[in-house]
TrEMBL record:
This protein's name: Related to iron/ascorbate family oxidoreductases
InterPro entries assigned: DIOX_N, IPNS-like_FE2OG_OXY, IPNS-like_sf, Iron_ascorbate_oxido_reductase, Oxoglu/Fe-dep_dioxygenase_dom
Pfam families in the record: 2OG-FeII_Oxy, DIOX_N
Sample GO molecular function, one term: metal ion binding
PANTHER family: 2-OXOGLUTARATE (2OG) AND FE(II)-DEPENDENT OXYGENASE SUPERFAMILY PROTEIN-RELATED
Gene source species: Phialocephala subalpina
Family, per entry: Belongs to the iron/ascorbate-dependent oxidoreductase family.
One example of a Gene Ontology biological process annotation: small molecule biosynthetic process
Keyword annotations from UniProtKB, A to Z: Iron, Metal-binding, Oxidoreductase
Length: 353
């Protein structure tokens, strides 16, 4: 099979209604990256980052260039994918035991059913390294999925990396040069479906292991961020993308850009009887990038300049990601009965239930 050149029709996707319950929402900043095309734009946005990033690694991005229909179109593809038979979907299983998230992960069943109630399909970068079989549905919409993914990388991720570099007073291309799309490395778009479950905690408190995570509009509440005053819900709005800083960027920025602790809880009563779809993009450094902190004039001036974290000096972004994925797989699959603490090279996993 090969990717189709004709975009096929799909049933329209309609968002579920917002909850009517009163929830405690996190107060998050919004970066309007369209300002980068204006004189003084990067200075303004960098100053904004410096005012909030050490307090909360969750924020919104506006001015991102996607229309509401662009995003709903991806949800329509996701919805059709999850409606495929389990037999069809499991032809494309991800090898999570080897630390590889490309492909399909099924909802846990049997004695492991309580460990997760979601299924996922991860579509990697559109480069020769990641050529692999896909369901015909994905091939039918291959070019539009590719266009959507490339827009995130080129027009949202890279501008944000330049803003962060400017804030740290380093070469604006420093992080960009470690996230070249054509270089070896795993970056992927995820279609995700949480199935209704009576358990209160759908995803335990954790940090992501990549650079930045982009979460697209989904009005079913459930995502929470850990704040100094406790867990708070993250509000989703149609015109913004929720972004969170993840482990790799924390390491590369010497700990200044904090990997954000978050979790997913059971949605409110008026939303918890239906599945919760998610559309997520995980940006990650190139495979061979070592997770060593940048030398930053800002950090040196603030007395925050870090040396290489013990154990991480020789660890690459790919090794870090594979170790975390494989560790999570062992617990989800019931190969270990308790959560492991060491990830790799003596670096410990933290849990935030």
């Amino acid at each position: 099979m090969s990717p189709a050149t004709i975009i096929k029709e799909l049933p329209d996707y309609e968002y579920p209604p917002q909850t009517s319950e009163k929830l405690e929402w996190a107060d998050l900043e919004a970066l309007d990256i369209s300002k980068l095309s204006q004189p003084g734009g990067i200075e303004e946005l960098s100053s904004q980052v410096l005012n909030f990033i050490d307090k909360n690694g969750f924020f919104y991005v506006t001015g991102h260039g996607f229309s509401g229909e662009d995003i709903k179109r991806q949800y329509a593809i996701a919805q059709e994918f999850f409606d495929l038979s389990l037999e069809e979907k499991t032809k494309y299983l991800a090898n999570t035991a080897a630390g590889d998230f490309r492909g399909y992960k099924a909802q846990a069943t049997g004695e492991n059913a309580g460990k997760d109630n979601d299924e996922r399909y991860n579509i990697p970068k559109f480069t020769p390294e990641h050529e692999r079989p896909h369901p015909q549905l994905i091939l039918d919409h291959y070019e539009e999925i590719k266009s959507f993914s490339l827009h995130i990388h080129n027009n949202i991720l890279l501008p944000l990396l330049r803003i962060f570099a400017h804030a740290l007073e380093i070469d604006e291309e420093y992080f960009v040069e470690r996230h070249r799309y054509d270089a070896k490395g795993l970056e992927y778009l995820r279609y995700m479906k949480y199935h209704p479950s009576p358990k209160e905690l759908w995803a335990i408190g954790h940090t992501d292991y990549n650079t930045l995570t982009f979460l697209f509009h989904q009005p079913i509440a459930g995502l929470q961020v850990q704040t100094p005053t406790g867990w708070k819900y993250v509000r989703s709005s149609p015109d913004s993308i929720i972004v969170n800083v993840a482990d790799a960027l924390e390491f590369l920025s010497g700990g200044y850009l904090k990997s954000t602790v978050h979790r997913v809880v059971r949605p409110p009563e008026d939303q918890n009887q239906k599945p919760r779809l998610s559309l997520i993009y995980f940006a990650r450094p190139e495979a061979d990038v070592r997770l060593v902190p940048v030398r930053s004039p800002l950090l040196e001036r603030l007395g925050l300049q870090k040396e290489v974290e013990e154990g991480l000096g020789g660890v690459t972004a790919e090794e870090w990601a594979r170790a975390r994925i494989a560790k999570d797989h062992r617990f989800r699959a019931g190969l270990v009965k308790t959560r492991e603490t060491e990830i790799i090279a003596g670096v410990k996993q933290k849990y935030y239930d």
